[in-house]
């Protein structure tokens, strides 16, 4: 029996690595990609020893120009059963004080590469008549984010795009799930220079628990997966609050 194949981006750490581990534990094979070859190779050895998983390692900078095409070529024409778009990064600070190239690179990775991979593999899955796509968005995508303006906006795109794409593809046997977690305890906070913020100091969920919520939601074909019920309830009501009040509340948590 052929094992289900998952392609996971951003698989060297955090949610991506935990989804790869979970998929392997449940009997699947993998294509994993991230910049850090040593971390990916170590993961491949770990999963081979633990589960007999066959893992193709693609060490590259997905955010670089041509990154999506390079990954597609490295996959060797294989069409995964599951596509997990997890790669991304954030950054804090007043937008006009931030390095513009850094924010444009954020858009390239968080948005453009995700769209490119969804287009290529979504088309192939549609032709095949089956497939599952999991896009890692964020609860940040449901509200504007002062002092993380670009990051919040990229996740708003992912949240919206994923749901629209699901509506288009579902009738062809392909589902798209957006995983929208709150703050997760990963190295993301270090890359985004967020350790000083109230949001991070309050603590968050583990990458393992969020990965399981997202993976299982993808298998069920859920539209949106939020790992925290209280957070989901808050998001349903926050739209009723005055927008200026919401902006000030979020600003306080980011500074």
Automatic annotation (TrEMBL):
Highest taxon of the lineage: Bacteria
Keywords: Oxidoreductase
Any one Pfam family match given in the protein's UniProt record, by short name: adh_short
CDD domains to which the protein is assigned, alphabetical: SDR_c
MF GO annotations: oxidoreductase activity
PANTHER family referenced in this protein's UniProt entry, alphabetically: ALCOHOL DEHYDROGENASE
Family: Belongs to the short-chain dehydrogenases/reductases (SDR) family.
Descriptive protein name: Short-subunit dehydrogenase
Organism expressing this protein natively: Hasllibacter halocynthiae
């Amino acid at each position: 029996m052929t094992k289900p194949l998952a392609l996971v981006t951003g698989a060297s750490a955090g949610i991506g690595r935990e989804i790869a581990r979970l998929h392997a534990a449940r009997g699947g094979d993998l294509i994993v990609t991230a910049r850090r070859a040593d971390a990916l190779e170590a993961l491949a050895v770990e999963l081979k020893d633990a589960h007999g998983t066959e893992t193709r390692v693609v060490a590259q900078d997905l955010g670089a120009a041509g990154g999506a095409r390079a990954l597609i070529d490295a996959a060797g024409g294989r069409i995964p059963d599951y596509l997990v778009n997890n790669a991304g990064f954030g950054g804090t600070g007043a937008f006009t004080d931030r390095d513009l190239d850094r924010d444009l690179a954020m858009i390239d990775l968080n948005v453009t590469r995700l769209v490119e991979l969804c287009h290529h593999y979504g088309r192939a899955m549609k032709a095949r008549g089956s497939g599952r796509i999991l896009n890692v968005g964020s609860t940040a995508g449901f509200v504007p984010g002062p002092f993380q303006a670009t990051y919040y906006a990229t996740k708003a795109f992912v949240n919206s795009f994923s749901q629209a794409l699901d509506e288009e593809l579902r009738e062809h046997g392909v589902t798209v799930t957006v995983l929208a977690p709150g703050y997760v305890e990963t190295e993301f906070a270090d890359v985004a220079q967020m350790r000083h913020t109230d949001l991070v100091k309050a603590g968050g969920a583990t990458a393992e628990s969020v990965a399981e919520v997202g993976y299982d939601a993808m298998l069920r074909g859920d539209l949106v997966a939020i790992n925290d019920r209280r957070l989901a309830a808050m998001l349903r009501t926050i739209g009723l609050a005055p927008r200026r009040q919401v902006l000030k509340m979020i600003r306080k948590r980011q500074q």
